[in-house]
Amino acid sequence: MYKNLPELTCYRLNIFYDKLFGGNPANVVFSQTPLKDELMFKLSQELALPETVFISNLQTGKNCSIDASFFTINGSEIDFCGHLAIGTIYSAYLESDKKFKNWTLNTKQGVLKAVVEPTKNGKVNISIQSNPPKLYPVTLNVSEKIYLQTKFGVSINSPYLPMINPELENMYIHHDNLEMMNFERVDFVPFISERNLLGLVFINASQNLKSQKDYLGRPIDIEVRATYPGLGIKEDPQSGSAPASVIEFALHNHLIQPRTRYIISQGAYINRPGSMEVFIKDDSYWIRGSVVLFHKSKLEVK
């Protein structure tokens, strides 16, 4: 049925953690020439993670670049996915025999810069440029307040207005006590109908954190819990697209002090610990995280 396909290589990775079985699992499928949308739809469903990235047009040398297309398990294409962008650069780095460190990532959301940073202990960190966040305060109606209180335990008396990023990921960001969050049952209907949201992101920037330090021993600035019911994700181990927006939210509400580097922790409540570093360079946000190769295989589609 599928004839004359290019050779396909699938990388299964753990993102935002430096050991196996932590962070956010990721599928990256590499082919030198682009695949048709129909096949990418089917492969994303078959590989059975919430999102899969398909990368192609690998260019190495003086100007290294890679193209990326992001698909969800329900067969839809999205413009960008943060942890898969990290995985894309790492996979391109492996495909180039680990020779090149500076990359350009081409996505439907835009062209982003990325840097591969091998560490002294043999691990690899990836830093990737993030599009500038654009956040807008949201005034909740009565039904939304009741929804948040009953489903998530969110206080309706919080002094901080929730904020939404309609361009990046349509995510709702709110500050509250993370110990109260229960994502076992998520009814997303009110927000789908009124806000057309993809995800709910809750942050805690107080001293009441589940852990004061991340898995590398770095002091944590912000702890995150996130759910993406539209993608079938009850709780996301790490939200790679959210960090810049989360930092902007925290700065806007004076929850953290302005500086050039922050550590965000996520996944502790579902036993998938991980963290990312957010830093500001040349007026741009950058996201840095570790990557580990779990499995590499050739895909034969017959």
Give the beta-strand count: 16
- Output the CATH class name of the largest domain: Alpha Beta
Quote the average pLDDT: 85
- Percentage beta strand: 35-45%
Structural class: alpha+beta
Kindly report the CATH topology of the largest domain: Diaminopimelate Epimerase, Chain A, domain 1
Backbone CA Rg: 19 Å
Q: Considering the protein shown, what is the CATH homologous superfamily of the largest domain?
A: Diaminopimelate Epimerase, Chain A, domain 1
Query: How many H/I helical runs?
Result: 5
Distance between the termini: 6 Å
Biggest sheet strand line-up: 1-2-3-4-6-7-8-16
Feature tags:
302 residues, alpha+beta, Diaminopimelate Epimerase, Chain A, domain 1, 2 domains, eight-stranded mixed β-barrel, 5 helices, 17% helix, globular
Write the layout of secondary structure elements.
Layout: E1 8-15, E2 24-30, H1 37-47, E3 51-59, E4 64-72, E5 77-78, H2 82-95, E6 102-107, E7 110-118, E8 124-130, E9 136-137, H3 142-152, E10 163-165, E11 171-175, H4 189-194, E12 199-204, E13 222-227, H5 243-252, E14 261-266, E15 274-281, E16 284-299
Parallel strand pairs: 2-3, 4-6, 11-12, 13-14
Antiparallel strand pairs: 1-2, 1-16, 3-4, 4-5, 6-7, 7-8, 8-16, 9-10, 10-11, 12-13, 14-15, 15-16
